[in-house]
User: Fold this.
Amino acid sequence: MKPFFILIIALLSITIHAQKNNPNYDAKLAKELGADDYGMKSYVFAVLKTGTNTSTDKELKSKAFRGHLDNINRLVKENKLIVAGPFGKNENAYRGLFIFNVKTLEEAQELIKTDPAIAEKYLAVDLYNWYGSAALSEYLKTADKIWKINP
Assistant:
């Protein structure tokens, strides 16, 4: 019986030592960013695609896309949008992506409704739950210091 207990203690010791703790862990920052024990959290990832509106009205299209950019800036200021950007030309008609700082598809759907280019159907969107680094939003502090011209 004694060898059995020694084996159990040895296995527990190996298991405990196999898990590594991060010496740089900042509990306060992790909490502020909503990180779980792995430094991750839930977001919603959006793929923007070419929509069904094929209108050639340049003024209407320009207004919708100006509103699209203004909406992006508003959502960033509200900390609801972490990443936004266009894709290069591709065969899938994918136009760009958003990473929303929300937990549910329903929350992201409400935010999507505020985008004029989507409302006017120049863009369509597919939404996906996504699990990524909770530190993703931290890049915005630096990103705001490196743009020279606001689109």
Observations:
- The helical segments are 2-18, 27-33, 58-77, 105-112, 116-119, 139-143.
- The domain at 34-135 is CATH 3.30.70.1060 (Alpha-Beta Plaits).
- Strands lie at 40-50, 81-86, 94-100, 123-133.
- Residues 58-77 form the longest helix (20 residues).
